[in-house]
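Next comes the chain:
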Amino acid sequence: MSAFRVSATDGAARAGVLATAHGEVPTPAFMPVGTKATIKGLHPERVRELGGSVVLANTYHLFFRPGIATIEELGGLHRFMGWDGPILTDSGGFQVFSLRHTIVRADGEGVTFRSVYDGAMARFTPELAADVQRRLGSDVAMCFDVCPAADAPREVHELAVQRTTAWAARQLAAPRAPGQLLFGIAQGGTDPGLRRRSVEEVVALGFDGHALGGLSVGEDREAMLDTVEWAAPLLPAGRARYFMGIGDPLGILDVVERGIDMFDCVLPTRLGRTGTALTWEGRLNLKNARFGRDGRPLDEGCPCAACERFSRAYVSHLVRQQELLGLILLSEHNVRFLLDLTAGARAAIERRELGSYRRAVLDRLGSGVAAGQEALG
Protein backbone atom coordinates (compact mmCIF):
# COMPACT_ATOMS: atom_id res chain seq x y z
CA MET A 1 0.00 0.00 0.00
CA SER A 2 1.34 3.41 -1.00
CA ALA A 3 2.19 5.91 1.73
CA PHE A 4 0.93 8.68 -0.55
CA ARG A 5 -2.57 9.41 -1.72
CA VAL A 6 -3.82 12.10 -4.09
CA SER A 7 -6.94 13.86 -2.83
CA ALA A 8 -7.46 16.45 -5.58
CA THR A 9 -6.05 17.45 -8.94
CA ASP A 10 -6.11 20.55 -11.11
CA GLY A 11 -4.45 19.89 -14.43
CA ALA A 12 -1.07 18.36 -13.61
CA ALA A 13 -1.10 19.82 -10.08
CA ARG A 14 -1.98 17.55 -7.16
CA ALA A 15 -3.08 17.93 -3.55
CA GLY A 16 -2.43 14.90 -1.40
CA VAL A 17 -1.18 13.43 1.84
CA LEU A 18 2.07 11.61 2.60
CA ALA A 19 1.68 9.27 5.58
CA THR A 20 4.84 8.82 7.67
CA ALA A 21 5.78 7.22 10.98
CA HIS A 22 5.58 10.62 12.70
CA GLY A 23 2.42 11.96 11.12
CA GLU A 24 0.83 13.03 7.87
CA VAL A 25 2.23 15.65 5.51
CA PRO A 26 -0.35 17.58 3.47
CA THR A 27 0.99 18.28 -0.01
CA PRO A 28 2.07 20.38 -1.79
CA ALA A 29 4.57 20.78 1.05
CA PHE A 30 7.44 23.20 1.48
CA MET A 31 10.10 21.66 3.74
CA PRO A 32 12.16 24.14 5.77
CA VAL A 33 15.80 23.05 5.76
CA GLY A 34 17.45 22.15 9.04
CA THR A 35 20.80 21.04 7.62
CA LYS A 36 22.44 20.52 11.03
CA ALA A 37 19.27 19.42 12.89
CA THR A 38 17.91 22.94 13.34
CA ILE A 39 15.95 25.41 11.24
CA LYS A 40 18.33 28.32 11.69
CA GLY A 41 16.85 30.90 14.04
CA LEU A 42 13.56 29.07 14.70
CA HIS A 43 12.44 27.05 17.72
CA PRO A 44 10.88 23.72 16.64
CA GLU A 45 7.53 24.65 18.20
CA ARG A 46 7.55 27.89 16.25
CA VAL A 47 8.09 25.98 13.00
CA ARG A 48 4.98 23.96 13.81
CA GLU A 49 3.00 27.10 14.71
CA LEU A 50 3.98 28.68 11.40
CA GLY A 51 2.43 25.73 9.55
CA GLY A 52 5.45 23.48 8.99
CA SER A 53 4.57 19.78 8.86
CA VAL A 54 7.91 18.31 7.75
CA VAL A 55 11.53 19.44 7.95
CA LEU A 56 14.73 18.36 6.22
CA ALA A 57 18.09 17.45 7.79
CA ASN A 58 21.33 16.49 6.11
CA THR A 59 23.10 13.15 6.42
CA TYR A 60 26.52 14.46 5.37
CA HIS A 61 26.73 17.23 7.95
CA LEU A 62 25.26 15.20 10.82
CA PHE A 63 27.65 12.36 10.00
CA PHE A 64 30.58 14.67 10.79
CA ARG A 65 29.03 16.85 13.51
CA PRO A 66 27.99 15.73 16.09
CA GLY A 67 28.34 12.19 14.70
CA ILE A 68 25.72 9.52 14.19
CA ALA A 69 26.67 7.55 17.32
CA THR A 70 25.94 10.60 19.47
CA ILE A 71 22.51 11.18 17.94
CA GLU A 72 21.67 7.48 18.15
CA GLU A 73 22.71 7.29 21.82
CA LEU A 74 20.51 10.29 22.59
CA GLY A 75 17.40 8.67 21.16
CA GLY A 76 17.51 9.41 17.45
CA LEU A 77 17.14 12.56 15.39
CA HIS A 78 13.60 13.46 16.46
CA ARG A 79 14.46 13.49 20.14
CA PHE A 80 17.85 15.08 19.55
CA MET A 81 16.41 18.11 17.74
CA GLY A 82 13.16 18.33 19.69
CA TRP A 83 10.92 17.90 16.64
CA ASP A 84 8.20 15.26 16.85
CA GLY A 85 6.93 15.63 13.28
CA PRO A 86 8.13 14.04 10.05
CA ILE A 87 11.78 14.46 9.02
CA LEU A 88 13.28 13.88 5.58
CA THR A 89 17.02 13.31 5.44
CA ASP A 90 19.09 14.09 2.37
CA SER A 91 21.62 11.37 1.62
CA GLY A 92 24.77 13.37 0.99
CA GLY A 93 24.37 13.07 -2.77
CA PHE A 94 23.94 16.82 -3.22
CA GLN A 95 27.34 17.30 -1.58
CA VAL A 96 28.80 15.45 -4.58
CA PHE A 97 27.87 18.69 -6.37
CA SER A 98 28.06 21.41 -3.73
CA LEU A 99 31.28 20.18 -2.07
CA ARG A 100 32.92 18.72 -5.17
CA HIS A 101 36.12 20.60 -4.33
CA THR A 102 36.47 18.27 -1.30
CA ILE A 103 36.15 15.02 -3.28
CA VAL A 104 39.31 12.92 -3.27
CA ARG A 105 37.98 10.02 -5.31
CA ALA A 106 34.69 9.02 -6.93
CA ASP A 107 34.16 5.59 -8.44
CA GLY A 108 31.50 2.95 -8.92
CA GLU A 109 31.53 2.04 -5.24
CA GLY A 110 31.12 5.51 -3.73
CA VAL A 111 32.70 8.89 -3.03
CA THR A 112 35.61 9.77 -0.75
CA PHE A 113 35.34 13.26 0.76
CA ARG A 114 37.62 15.37 2.89
CA SER A 115 35.45 16.66 5.73
CA VAL A 116 34.64 20.37 5.43
CA TYR A 117 35.15 20.55 9.20
CA ASP A 118 38.62 19.11 9.73
CA GLY A 119 39.77 17.58 6.45
CA ALA A 120 39.37 14.00 7.70
CA MET A 121 38.74 11.39 5.02
CA ALA A 122 35.29 9.78 4.84
CA ARG A 123 34.00 7.24 2.35
CA PHE A 124 30.31 7.61 1.41
CA THR A 125 28.55 4.67 -0.23
CA PRO A 126 24.88 3.75 -0.72
CA GLU A 127 25.21 1.33 2.17
CA LEU A 128 26.64 4.04 4.45
CA ALA A 129 23.88 6.47 3.45
CA ALA A 130 21.29 3.80 4.27
CA ASP A 131 22.89 2.94 7.62
CA VAL A 132 23.28 6.55 8.73
CA GLN A 133 19.68 7.39 7.87
CA ARG A 134 18.47 4.20 9.56
CA ARG A 135 20.30 5.17 12.75
CA LEU A 136 19.01 8.74 12.56
CA GLY A 137 15.49 7.34 12.35
CA SER A 138 14.21 9.80 9.77
CA ASP A 139 10.76 9.28 8.28
CA VAL A 140 11.91 9.66 4.67
CA ALA A 141 15.39 8.58 3.61
CA MET A 142 16.87 9.61 0.28
CA CYS A 143 19.04 7.47 -1.97
CA PHE A 144 22.70 8.36 -2.37
CA ASP A 145 23.08 9.67 -5.92
CA VAL A 146 25.50 11.53 -8.17
CA CYS A 147 24.54 15.15 -8.86
CA PRO A 148 26.69 16.73 -11.59
CA ALA A 149 26.98 20.43 -12.28
CA ALA A 150 24.53 21.69 -14.91
CA ASP A 151 27.32 22.52 -17.37
CA ALA A 152 29.11 19.17 -17.00
CA PRO A 153 29.80 17.30 -20.28
CA ARG A 154 27.18 14.81 -21.43
CA GLU A 155 29.44 11.88 -20.60
CA VAL A 156 29.56 13.07 -16.97
CA HIS A 157 25.75 13.17 -16.81
CA GLU A 158 25.61 9.75 -18.44
CA LEU A 159 27.96 8.29 -15.81
CA ALA A 160 25.89 9.99 -13.09
CA VAL A 161 22.74 8.30 -14.39
CA GLN A 162 24.49 4.92 -14.49
CA ARG A 163 25.87 5.19 -10.96
CA THR A 164 22.67 6.68 -9.53
CA THR A 165 20.68 3.66 -10.73
CA ALA A 166 23.25 1.16 -9.46
CA TRP A 167 23.50 2.90 -6.09
CA ALA A 168 19.71 3.13 -5.76
CA ALA A 169 19.45 -0.64 -6.17
CA ARG A 170 22.12 -1.19 -3.52
CA GLN A 171 20.49 1.17 -1.04
CA LEU A 172 17.07 -0.39 -1.63
CA ALA A 173 18.50 -3.70 -0.45
CA ALA A 174 19.89 -2.22 2.78
CA PRO A 175 18.07 -2.27 6.16
CA ARG A 176 15.89 0.68 7.15
CA ALA A 177 14.44 2.06 10.37
CA PRO A 178 10.93 0.81 11.21
CA GLY A 179 8.40 2.60 9.02
CA GLN A 180 11.09 4.55 7.17
CA LEU A 181 10.19 5.46 3.59
CA LEU A 182 12.85 5.47 0.88
CA PHE A 183 12.76 7.82 -2.11
CA GLY A 184 14.69 7.21 -5.31
CA ILE A 185 16.29 10.07 -7.24
CA ALA A 186 16.43 10.54 -11.01
CA GLN A 187 19.32 12.40 -12.61
CA GLY A 188 20.08 13.32 -16.23
CA GLY A 189 20.14 17.11 -16.12
CA THR A 190 17.95 18.66 -18.82
CA ASP A 191 18.98 16.07 -21.41
CA PRO A 192 15.71 14.37 -22.48
CA GLY A 193 17.28 11.02 -23.29
CA LEU A 194 19.34 10.75 -20.11
CA ARG A 195 16.57 12.08 -17.83
CA ARG A 196 14.01 9.68 -19.32
CA ARG A 197 16.43 6.78 -18.94
CA SER A 198 17.14 7.65 -15.32
CA VAL A 199 13.45 8.00 -14.45
CA GLU A 200 12.61 4.67 -16.08
CA GLU A 201 15.46 2.82 -14.38
CA VAL A 202 14.86 4.22 -10.90
CA VAL A 203 11.06 3.89 -11.07
CA ALA A 204 11.43 0.24 -12.07
CA LEU A 205 13.17 -0.47 -8.75
CA GLY A 206 10.03 0.35 -6.77
CA PHE A 207 10.50 3.16 -4.23
CA ASP A 208 8.04 4.80 -1.84
CA GLY A 209 8.48 8.14 -3.59
CA HIS A 210 10.59 9.78 -6.26
CA ALA A 211 12.70 12.92 -6.61
CA LEU A 212 13.87 14.87 -9.61
CA GLY A 213 17.48 15.62 -8.69
CA GLY A 214 20.17 17.47 -10.58
CA LEU A 215 17.97 20.48 -11.32
CA SER A 216 18.18 24.02 -9.95
CA VAL A 217 21.98 23.63 -10.01
CA GLY A 218 22.79 26.38 -12.48
CA GLU A 219 20.86 25.44 -15.60
CA ASP A 220 18.63 27.82 -17.54
CA ARG A 221 15.36 28.39 -15.67
CA GLU A 222 13.12 27.68 -18.66
CA ALA A 223 15.02 24.50 -19.48
CA MET A 224 14.57 23.40 -15.87
CA LEU A 225 10.82 24.02 -15.91
CA ASP A 226 10.43 22.36 -19.31
CA THR A 227 12.19 19.30 -17.92
CA VAL A 228 9.91 19.18 -14.88
CA GLU A 229 6.86 19.55 -17.11
CA TRP A 230 7.54 16.42 -19.13
CA ALA A 231 9.50 14.41 -16.54
CA ALA A 232 7.10 14.67 -13.57
CA PRO A 233 4.29 12.77 -15.36
CA LEU A 234 6.75 9.91 -15.98
CA LEU A 235 6.91 9.34 -12.22
CA PRO A 236 4.28 7.04 -10.67
CA ALA A 237 1.00 8.87 -10.04
CA GLY A 238 0.53 7.07 -6.73
CA ARG A 239 3.88 8.13 -5.26
CA ALA A 240 5.05 11.48 -3.90
CA ARG A 241 7.11 13.63 -6.29
CA TYR A 242 9.91 15.71 -4.82
CA PHE A 243 11.80 18.56 -6.48
CA MET A 244 15.10 18.95 -4.68
CA GLY A 245 16.03 22.56 -4.02
CA ILE A 246 13.53 25.27 -4.97
CA GLY A 247 12.11 27.93 -2.67
CA ASP A 248 11.41 31.22 -4.44
CA PRO A 249 7.68 32.03 -4.55
CA LEU A 250 7.25 31.86 -8.31
CA GLY A 251 9.44 28.76 -8.55
CA ILE A 252 7.26 26.97 -6.00
CA LEU A 253 4.11 27.71 -7.99
CA ASP A 254 5.85 26.74 -11.24
CA VAL A 255 6.77 23.26 -10.01
CA VAL A 256 3.46 22.70 -8.21
CA GLU A 257 1.67 23.54 -11.45
CA ARG A 258 3.76 20.85 -13.15
CA GLY A 259 2.86 18.08 -10.69
CA ILE A 260 5.46 18.34 -7.90
CA ASP A 261 4.31 17.52 -4.36
CA MET A 262 7.31 18.35 -2.14
CA PHE A 263 10.22 20.80 -2.30
CA ASP A 264 12.84 22.30 -0.02
CA CYS A 265 15.22 25.23 0.04
CA VAL A 266 17.50 27.14 2.43
CA LEU A 267 16.31 30.41 0.85
CA PRO A 268 13.95 31.76 3.56
CA THR A 269 16.37 31.44 6.47
CA ARG A 270 19.42 32.35 4.39
CA LEU A 271 17.69 35.56 3.27
CA GLY A 272 16.66 36.20 6.87
CA ARG A 273 20.25 35.93 8.06
CA THR A 274 21.35 38.42 5.41
CA GLY A 275 18.67 40.96 6.34
CA THR A 276 16.17 40.30 3.54
CA ALA A 277 12.41 39.76 3.77
CA LEU A 278 10.17 37.92 1.30
CA THR A 279 7.06 40.07 0.92
CA TRP A 280 4.21 40.79 -1.45
CA GLU A 281 6.30 43.75 -2.61
CA GLY A 282 9.13 41.41 -3.55
CA ARG A 283 12.34 41.06 -1.58
CA LEU A 284 13.10 43.86 0.85
CA ASN A 285 16.71 44.44 1.88
CA LEU A 286 16.29 45.81 5.42
CA LYS A 287 19.91 47.00 5.42
CA ASN A 288 18.75 49.74 3.07
CA ALA A 289 18.51 53.13 4.78
CA ARG A 290 15.15 53.83 3.12
CA PHE A 291 13.49 51.55 5.67
CA GLY A 292 14.92 53.44 8.65
CA ARG A 293 11.75 55.52 9.18
CA ASP A 294 9.19 53.15 7.63
CA GLY A 295 6.48 52.51 10.21
CA ARG A 296 4.71 49.80 8.23
CA PRO A 297 5.03 46.08 8.98
CA LEU A 298 7.06 43.93 6.61
CA ASP A 299 3.77 42.69 5.11
CA GLU A 300 0.30 44.04 5.82
CA GLY A 301 -1.95 41.29 7.20
CA CYS A 302 0.86 38.82 7.93
CA PRO A 303 0.34 37.24 11.38
CA CYS A 304 4.00 36.46 12.08
CA ALA A 305 5.76 37.94 15.12
CA ALA A 306 7.72 40.43 13.04
CA CYS A 307 4.65 41.85 11.30
CA GLU A 308 2.21 41.82 14.22
CA ARG A 309 4.44 43.69 16.64
CA PHE A 310 7.24 45.51 14.87
CA SER A 311 7.80 48.05 12.12
CA ARG A 312 10.11 47.87 9.14
CA ALA A 313 12.07 50.66 10.79
CA TYR A 314 12.66 48.58 13.92
CA VAL A 315 13.61 45.43 12.01
CA SER A 316 15.92 47.54 9.82
CA HIS A 317 17.51 48.97 12.96
CA LEU A 318 18.10 45.47 14.33
CA VAL A 319 19.61 44.27 11.07
CA ARG A 320 21.91 47.24 10.66
CA GLN A 321 23.07 46.91 14.25
CA GLN A 322 23.60 43.17 13.76
CA GLU A 323 21.18 42.31 16.54
CA LEU A 324 20.19 38.63 16.52
CA LEU A 325 16.50 39.39 17.00
CA GLY A 326 16.33 41.02 13.58
CA LEU A 327 17.67 37.93 11.82
CA ILE A 328 15.36 35.69 13.84
CA LEU A 329 12.30 37.81 13.00
CA LEU A 330 13.16 37.87 9.30
CA SER A 331 13.79 34.12 9.18
CA GLU A 332 10.45 33.44 10.85
CA HIS A 333 8.64 35.80 8.51
CA ASN A 334 10.24 34.29 5.40
CA VAL A 335 9.44 30.70 6.42
CA ARG A 336 5.85 31.72 7.16
CA PHE A 337 5.59 33.47 3.79
CA LEU A 338 6.51 30.32 1.87
CA LEU A 339 4.43 28.00 4.05
CA ASP A 340 1.38 30.24 3.60
CA LEU A 341 2.00 30.48 -0.15
CA THR A 342 2.17 26.69 -0.40
CA ALA A 343 -0.93 26.19 1.75
CA GLY A 344 -2.74 28.61 -0.53
CA ALA A 345 -1.69 26.56 -3.55
CA ARG A 346 -3.04 23.40 -1.92
CA ALA A 347 -6.39 25.05 -1.21
CA ALA A 348 -6.54 26.35 -4.78
CA ILE A 349 -5.93 22.87 -6.19
CA GLU A 350 -8.75 21.53 -4.05
CA ARG A 351 -11.02 24.21 -5.58
CA ARG A 352 -9.55 23.51 -9.04
CA GLU A 353 -8.47 27.15 -9.18
CA LEU A 354 -4.67 26.94 -9.18
CA GLY A 355 -4.41 28.97 -12.38
CA SER A 356 -6.37 31.89 -10.93
CA TYR A 357 -4.43 31.58 -7.64
CA ARG A 358 -1.15 31.80 -9.53
CA ARG A 359 -2.37 34.84 -11.46
CA ALA A 360 -3.48 36.50 -8.22
CA VAL A 361 -0.04 35.85 -6.70
CA LEU A 362 1.65 37.35 -9.76
CA ASP A 363 -0.66 40.36 -9.60
CA ARG A 364 0.08 40.88 -5.89
CA LEU A 365 3.80 40.62 -6.44
CA GLY A 366 3.59 42.70 -9.62
CA SER A 367 6.33 45.24 -10.08
CA GLY A 368 7.30 44.68 -6.45
CA VAL A 369 9.34 41.65 -7.52
CA ALA A 370 11.61 43.82 -9.62
CA ALA A 371 11.70 46.52 -6.96
CA GLY A 372 12.55 44.00 -4.26
CA GLN A 373 15.28 42.42 -6.34
CA GLU A 374 16.75 45.89 -6.92
CA ALA A 375 16.66 46.51 -3.18
CA LEU A 376 18.88 43.46 -2.65
CA GLY A 377 21.78 45.38 -4.09
Notes: The chain has two domains: 4-265, 272-376.
